[in-house]
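Sanity check

After download, print the first record. It should look like this:
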Amino acid sequence: MLKGLAAGGAALGFPAVGTATPGGCRLRWRRALNRHQPAGEPVINATQEVVNDIDHGLHGYWAYLDYRRTLRAWPVGGAYRAIVTYVGRFDGVEGALSYTGAETLTGGEAGTIHGGYAATIEGELLEDPDWPTHGFVGTTDYEGTIEN
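Expected structure tokens:
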């Protein structure tokens, strides 16, 4: 992995992010990310399963998240181009405010999350990384707890 990245959930490189899109809005996030993908094979192509993460909306924590996070990275001009994707689901928490704060949740809200981002990372690959650089690296349980 890249030197300087923390172990645990961030060992794949980046903190967890997940949000729901209101009103059935369809974002073309994969197409947008693909424009940032360099040619060739990535030097990192790892997937992590994350369970019991929590999502913070505009008015506090509102949902539990389970998702699959994939990190791919390519060397580009002395740095690395990383593309991180998330695909999973959310479950709303009874009594919490919705993501936008417009309503109080019943606890029956559920749906899918998907998205990602591209980043440039400056650093060196570790000669002996803490986690595998390719394939499935395991499941991380963040043991998230939301108390209203």
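If your output differs, re-run the checksum step. Summary of this record's structure: The chain is about 5% helix and 45% strand.
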